[in-house]
Amino acid sequence: MAQFADLPIELLPLILSFVPNPLNHTKTCLVNKIFYQYAGPKLYERISIYSWHKRAKERVILLFVSLAMKRYEDVGRWVRRLEIRDFPKSLSPTISLEPSPPSSSSSSPPESIDITTLITTALSNCPHLRSCTWTRDGSLSTEILLALQTHCKELEELEINGHSGGGNYDARTLVGFKELRKVRLIMPGVGVAGRLREWIGGMTEGRLKHLTLVCKLSPLISDTLLERLSPHLRSLEHFSITGCPKVTERGIIAVLEKNENGIVGLGLEGLSVKFHMPTFRSACLQHGFLRRLCTLTLTVHHQVPLEEWTTNVNDILSSTQLSHSESPLVHPSSSPSSSSSSSFASVSPPPLESFHIYSPTTFFEPSTSTSLFFHNLVSVHHATLKKISIHRMLIGMEVIERICRTCEELEELVVVVERGNVGGLPQLASRCLSRAKRLRIVHVNYPLEARTRRVLQGSYSRNPHHLGDDDGQEDDDEDEDHGDNGDDMEENEDENEDEDGDGGVDGEGDGIDLFRPVLLPPDALAIVQKCPATLEQFGCNTRVWKIQKRAEVDETGKVVGIRRELVRYDSLDIPEAFLVVRT
Question: Within 10 Å of residue 96's Cβ, how many Cβ atoms?
Fold first, then answer.
């Protein structure tokens, strides 16, 4: 009988590619030297340290100690993506290491070493690093940036904290990064904002494709700054800007106007309440700014007339521009600002694949405007939409049903449902989700009592498996991911489940307690069973599970069925539903 060892070695990389979690390669590396040769690069290709990891601050030091050692030079050459999202701020300039065994003293760091020297030495051993994330405020230095420029010649992506003052790095150092394709700045300070034009303008022409600016109500990023940057963003494909109340349609139009090929991904989140959507709409239709748009993220303020706003966005995304009197979405009370688009020629709709919308403050209740908005959206883009994400905006079950029934390519869906709906979540699954035949990821949010409402309105997960009630504080050095204290998230799980007790009101159908802030696994599994077999991940409010399939066999060993189970979410990536930047 043929055995696994009889397979040609050329098949091993393909077999290892099916290991779902890269961390599992810690075991495959131990099989033998041949396995280590192929599994090692997969294990160390991406190294990520998040604040919720146990002993994260200790791990980051041990990581750089290992990468700095000559004996681990091979490991350094395997690293392609390095994510440092936590770092000990109060660390002394030098650390003491335990003495190494005499046999290995020649390849070990000294017993006492400068932290900066340790990190720069480690980076010098990572010549093939392509992506570096370093978001911890106060932990990035000029020496580290120079080491990246000197030793990591293949670096294409850089995500850093933009606070360069107070003894951190010198913002002028950033000008040395000339070959980047993707830049993401978190909370850019005065120094970095002042160097943006020089930095981006000095990059190799046509190289920069992704630019993301994430702020927290910062006045530093303004229309004027974007207008100055725009001549250097001609080849930009993805542009995202968040938390910049001084940015209006003027700055965004300036960036899009100079773009040569058309933007592919656009994110406009938490911008000025004076952002005039009718003007933006007119510019987009007149010049075809969004003709290649695949991904769109928008926030809508409560101060903005919702009916007017949705009408203008629908016009931007629609295939045929109708006159004011012909549009099925226009109500008699519509303001003149959304008047006739008949002066514009008909254009093809953008190939929209991902649409994300949310309110940065409070919930939007169900309304005719939002229902018409989504009906129009799926009518135009049903053939291309793969992902729809809706936060803090309640929509009716009939709207969700149409989305699932009409969008044949739909793979990811994040929605907010009303807690009091008859049938609740089971009805959502059987009536809506079951119709989406390609669905892979589902996350459902629903409003809670006042004591837990703040979780939905102002906080997000630092632990992707569970979000406790004490997650409301953000860390200034991170945009949407993490805080300082992620180890206690699991302890809150039992509290959330116990404090509700039996005092909730059961929803009809499956007896699911819709007042419970955290859906219990048996209830979640009951919903998953009603969903398509393609579903891989399910979440509700602050919980996320991975769906695992197991074959059921009879006494003869014949497969008689497939059983779905909920298991702990263990991916290195944060669930998309928790990546909402809520300003």
Answer: 10
Residue listed under structure tokens 């959206």: 377
SS3 (DSSP) at 532: coil
Instruction: Give the predicted TM-score (pTM) of the model.
Output: 0.81
| The one-letter amino acid at 241 | I
Q: For the ranges 253-267, 304-318, 457-471, which has the lowest average pLDDT?
A: 457-471
Tokens 């699911």 identify what position?
512
Give the pLDDT of residue 201. 95
Q: Which two tokens stand for residue 437?
A: 């035949």
Alpha helices in 85-182 (DSSP H): 115-124, 142-151
- Tens-digit pLDDT profile for residues 227-242: 999 999 999 999 999 9
CA dihedral sign of residues 533, 534, 538, 544:
positive
Residue 384, pLDDT score: 96
DSSP letters for 20-82: SSGGGHHHHTTS-HHHHHHHHHHHHSEEEE-TTSTTHHHHHHHHHHHHHSGGGHHHHHH--EE
Query: Do β-strands 157-161 and 182-186 pair in parallel, antiparallel, or remain unpaired?
Result: parallel
3-class DSSP state of 506: strand
CA distances from 120 to 100, 243, 288 (A): 21, 33, 46
C-alpha 447/C-alpha 394 separation (Å) is: 9
Using DSSP bridges, classify how beta strands 81-84 and 182-186 pair: parallel, antiparallel or unpaired.
Answer: unpaired
For 406, the token pair is 């009409």
Torsion of CA 271, 163, 184, 25, to 10 degrees: -130
Kindly state the percentage of the chain with pLDDT values over 90.
55
* CB contact at 8 A, 86 and 62: no
pLDDT digit string, tens, across residues 423-456? 578 888 888 999 999 999 999 988 764 334 433 3
The C-alpha atoms of residue 445 and residue 428 are separated, in whole angstroms, by 12
Closest by CA position to 565, among listed 583, 550, 581, 543 = 550
Phi, psi of 546 (to 5 degrees): -95, 140
- Looking at every residue in the chain, the average pLDDT score rounds to 81
First to last CA, the chain: 62
Residue burial 434-473, b: 16+ Cβ < 10 Å; e: rest = bbbeebbbbbbbbbbeeebeebbbebbbbbbbbbbbebee
Give the separation between CA 428 and CA 278, rounded to whole angstroms: 35
Q: Two tokens at 175?
A: 């000008």
Which one, of 22, 26, 23, 111, lies nearest residue 65 by Cα?
Answer: 111
| Cβ-contact 213, 222 below 8 angstroms | no
Return the ∠ at Cα 116 (arms to 100 and 212), rounded to 5°: 130
Of residues 483 and 348, the one with the higher pLDDT is 348
d(C-alpha 423, C-alpha 96), whole Å: 61
Count CB-CB contacts under 10 A for residue 570.
Answer: 12
Does residue 448 contact residue 456 with C-beta atoms inside 8 Å? yes
Give the distance between the most distant pair of CA atoms in the chain.
Answer: 86
Instruction: Sketch the domain layout of the chain as residue ranges.
Output: 13-44
Instruction: Provide the 8-state DSSP code for 507.
Output: P
pLDDT, tens digit, 9 for 90 and up, residues 120-130? 999 999 999 99
